[in-house]
Amino acid sequence: MTLQKTELLTAYRLMKTIREFEERLHVEIATGAIPGFTHLYSGQEAIAVGVCMHLADDDYIVSTHRGHGHCIAKGCDVIGMMKEIYGRADGLCKGKGGSMHIADFDKGMLGANAIVGGGPPIATGAAIATKLDGNGKVTASFGGDGSSNQGTVFEAMNLAVVLKLPTLFVYEDNGYGEHTGTSYAVGSDDIAGRCAGFGMRAEKVDGADFFAVYDMAGDLFDQLRRGEGPAALECAITRFYGHYEGDPQKYRAKDEVATFRETMDCLRNFRKRVTDEGWLTDAELDAVDTEVMALIDDAVEQSKAAPPPDVSEVLTDVYVTY
Hints:
Elements: H1 5-29, H2 45-52, E1 60-62, H3 68-73, H4 78-85, H5 119-133, E2 139-144, H6 151-163, E3 167-173, E4 176-177, E5 180-181, H7 182-185, H8 191-196, E6 201-206, H9 210-225, E7 231-236, H10 256-263, H11 266-276, H12 282-305
Parallel strand pairs: 1-2, 2-3, 3-7, 6-7
Antiparallel strand pairs: 4-5
Helix pairs in contact: 1-2, 1-11, 1-12, 2-9, 4-12, 5-6
């Protein structure tokens, strides 16, 4: 275990922030105050944090429709994110992107994406830029098990191998592509194996184990930074809520989510590991919990009070002007 105490606290704070951000959204969305579709990341926190803790602001990531966790893990401002989801003028994207289109280029977050499998081609393009610049930077794309079936994703992985690009393809296999089970929709039932078929190193880890994700992601990023070409990481995990907020989840077995909350909670696993090993105390973790809850309360309060974009802004930021 190579992480220092401050790094362990950072990891826990990030995962806890993601969890409470999503849990609060689950409550607030029910009030009708938040526009648009929202897809919660609760349950998958260890993946975003385990990957992004290896990245600097000028490394790039591309997210998915379930992107809040990736944004927070990459360092995006939590209050600015909440304002964006509420559609406020001073949100990260001026209130025009909402939940599925948050981006923050200053943090290397190239955007969430409502297109299934839309991220890998963008990350591959960014990786071409970093390779041409020779700056030693890396990119990572996140995608669910459903994205692993997309032709554009296959093309992106093939191109990354051919050009030996510094990009990591992260697959968060939470068991469902929208409402369809992985075992039904992924023919090989082995996303990492499918990626390896393109000629890249591909590994699989327990997505509920922060330490497993962190260690493997670090090893793979080291490979990328050495110029040895792309890699893939499949993380087996679950999600605690439906595909979208309001999803009745009739496709899930009775008590499935309740069972997974007991057996696959990455925060619970983390807390047990670090306290059992004597790396952190419950008191230190409880203090982080208190700070995070105060942050989320502040983010919601500010978002509710902030103004929406002015009508004069409706046609701005639609097209890029060169």
